[in-house]
Amino acid sequence: MRKTFNGSFTQQEPIPEGAIARAVAVMRSGRLHRYNVSDSEVAETALLENEFAAYMGARYCLACASGGYAMHLALRSFGLQPGEPVLTNAFTLSPVPGAIDNAGGKPVLVETTRDLVIDLNDLELKIGRSHARVLLLSHMRGHIVDMDALMVVLSRHNVALIEDCAHTMGASWGERKSGSFGVAACFSTQTYKHMNSGEGGFVTTDDPKLMANAVIRSGSYMLYGRHQAAPDDAAFTDARLDNPNCSGRMDNLRAAILRPQLELLDDNRARWNERYRTVESALRGIEGLVLPHRPEKETYVGSSIQFLAEGLDTATLPDFITRCQARGVELKWFGDPEPVAYTSRHHSWRYIDAQSLPQTDAVLDKLCDMRIPLSIGVSDYELIGEIIAEEFVDCERAMAMPA
User: Which of 15, 39, 131, 305 is deepest in the core (most CB within 10 A)?
Assistant: First the structure.
């Protein structure tokens, strides 16, 4: 009888005890709002912003309500105008085009390669066609494009970069952290990301004007002076009057939960990558199953794993997913014609202009995805990799049998 896995792919690790104690202290104080502090007190949210800015090596940081809000905020604070085109990956999750639409922009989708990164040739072509001023680059599922080559393309066409680092918090390209290449970077602390506050996000930047706009837009009223990882008062002279209040602040309770988690981020990256490599080892070398290439310059965070099921046709892939599920392994398939849970593709984003993306469609038709939660032990991932491999090979064999 074949083995099954009996754990959960949606169960996260407990919040660290230090974070729980800090959160309880905030609740006992009653001062949950980031601006509700005593005269001698610095808000947990302001302290978190200082610490995350230092971690990123950024001048400024703003904590906000979600990663999607962070992207919307960065685009509007950059100066995006209504109806303006914004370049972004065709392979991403729906909050990315959603943020562009929410900011008043028009998403222009760029093809994805078989290594699950933005196609630089198609990017250059669509820069010329769209005359876009900005690329919102999604480091989707933690895969980082050749950032050196990307920056050459963007510099040549005077296109600004805003990074969506929801899946690359703690990752790097060469000596530079993911999120340090553009005019701004956006991060998420939603439960399934690399720090967990249920919902939450950050915007980081070195641009004082962009950050001043973002602070006012986030809902600071005229309390912007209570921010520490922010520009000085002079940057707010116009920003405080030119930007609407679009309340999306982080509160002190979530900040208290996140501060101790930041201290664990680099250690957790090593733990994720050990699990990632365990599954990768089980899948590598299986004919018809293709793992994305991970460049030497990429220091990734393996909180999920993807592969192309090239050896299976699209009629067989749903059966493969079902068979893995029956043995306790939860895979997502980006080729499903209907959006399922968090997984969707550009055809289901009907609020944006329909776009022809044959290369991306061919990739998504065969793309399987699996979360790698830290709550599952390394030895269990050996079993999980074995189950995926067995079911994949069995499905290949069944396809090869005469009808």
Answer: 305
pLDDT on residue 403: 62
Residue 252 to residue 269: CA distance in whole angstroms:
25
pLDDT in tens, 54-113: 999 999 999 999 999 999 999 999 999 999 999 999 999 999 999 999 999 999 999 999
Q: What is the number of H-type helices and E-type strands within the chain? A: 12, 13
Helix (H, G, I), strand (E, B) or coil at 290: strand
Six token digits for residue 154: 């963007």
Look at residue 122 and tell me whether its pLDDT is greater than 90. yes
Residue 64's beta-bridge partner residues? 201, 249
Show the domains of the chain with their CATH numbers.
17-259 (3.40.640.10), 264-400 (3.90.1150.10)
Residues whose CB is less than 8 angstroms from the CB of residue 349 and which lie 6 or more positions away in sequence, other chains included: 94, 97, 107
Q: Label residues 63-85 b or e (16+ Cβ within 10 Å = b).
A: bbbbbbbbbbbbbbbbebeeebb
> What is the per-residue DSSP string for 30-84?
T--STT---TT---HHHHHHHHHHHHHT-SEEEEES-HHHHHHHHHHHHTPPTT-
Measure the CA–CA gap between 343 and 125, rounded to whole angstroms: 27
pTM listed for this prediction = 0.97
Instruction: Give the single-character DSSP code of 343.
Output: B
Question: Rounded mean pLDDT of the chain?
Answer: 96
Name residues whose C-beta falls within 8 Å of residue 218's C-beta, 6 or more positions apart in sequence.
Answer: 62, 64, 73, 246, 247, 248, 249
